[in-house]
Design a protein that fits this description.
Layout: E1 6-8, E2 14-16, E3 22-26, H1 37-42, E4 48-50, H2 71-78, E5 86-91, H3 93-104, E6 109-115, H4 121-125, H5 129-147, H6 151-162, H7 173-181, H8 183-195, E7 210-215, H9 220-232, E8 237-241, H10 248-251, H11 253-268
Parallel strand pairs: 3-4, 3-5, 5-6, 6-7, 7-8
Antiparallel strand pairs: 1-2, 2-4
Helix pairs in contact: 2-3, 5-6, 5-8, 5-9, 6-7
């Protein structure tokens, strides 16, 4: 949280600061709004931070089985919390949700910070065939294991792809159980990440107010994806963080804060 008084509502939103500009922080799959605690604490107290739990994570209920799901469901759940204007930060799956919000109403988004958004449809659009097929295999292996009842194996493969080999074994029993519990929502997240195809030319309008972050040690398909996104968003800043992988916000928080504060300070200039 921020140094000022903070609270959490039923949806898991972290609130810091009573007044001031709002910074909306959207987490990735298998996470929750709690992952942004250090980020919120590092921001000056005159910023108001919102870190909601996306559908199926943290304090929000699971999506009803057999009910159609798309990215608009995430947007509808977030809309009641959104102010007239805000700074938008999204990591991984949260980055895709952030793009959906930004494109729906560009004038409300003052700055946009995207940390490896899993917009897999962009790989196909950009002609990154090998990278797109690699991500399809990751998705298909996850789905096959889940369908076979191998929930723990499905999550082991998921975690180790995005982090590193052996990352599953070092998790506590409680953490592994929590990860297995959200496997069905991750399946829906994959659906969104592959299915959301914005009007690609509309991304250019966000370039001057956008920073893109990517870990130097992230999976190659993600590095290619962020490269392609940078090309579609002229004038955006592109920051590659040495030694970081896809879990950059948790492992290299200072690099994220530096990039975010540069965005906020630039927006504050006349």
């Amino acid at each position: 949280m921020s140094p000022v008084a903070a609270s959490r509502n039923a949806a898991g939103t972290a609130l810091s600061g009573a007044d001031g500009e709002t910074v909306l922080l959207l987490h990735g799959s298998a996470s929750s709004g709690r992952m942004w605690r250090a980020t919120a604490q590092a921001l000056p107290p005159f910023y108001r931070t919102l870190a909601p739990d996306l559908i199926g994570y943290g304090g929000t209920p699971a999506w009803p089985p057999a009910t159609p799901f798309d990215i608009d469901a995430e947007a509808r759940a977030l809309e009641p919390e959104l102010p007239c204007e805000y700074h938008l930060v999204g990591h991984s799956y949260g980055g895709v949700v952030a793009l959906r919000l930004a494109l729906a109403d560009p004038k409300r988004v003052r700055t946009l910070t995207l940390i490896e958004p899993v917009l897999f449809s962009l790989l196909r659009h950009a002609g990154e065939t090998a990278a797109f097929e690699r991500m399809c295999r990751v998705r298909d292996e996850f789905i096959a294991r889940l369908a076979a009842g191998e929930r723990e194996n499905s999550m082991r493969g998921f975690v180790e792809f995005w982090s590193s080999e052996g990352a599953w074994a070092v998790q506590s029993d409680a953490m592994r159980a929590a990860l297995v519990k959200v496997a069905d929502k991750i399946l829906l997240d994959f659906q969104v990440a592959f299915g959301f195809e914005p009007e690609w030319n509309q991304l250019a309008q966000f370039g001057p107010r956008t920073v893109l972050l990517c870990g130097a040690q992230s999976p190659e398909p993600m590095r290619r994806l962020v490269d392609a996104l940078h090309r579609l968003m002229p004038a955006s800043r592109y920051v590659v963080v040495p030694g970081a992988n896809h879990l950059l916000p948790s492992t290299h928080g200072s690099a994220l804060i530096d990039a975010l504060m540069t965005q906020l300070n630039a927006d504050a200039r006349p």
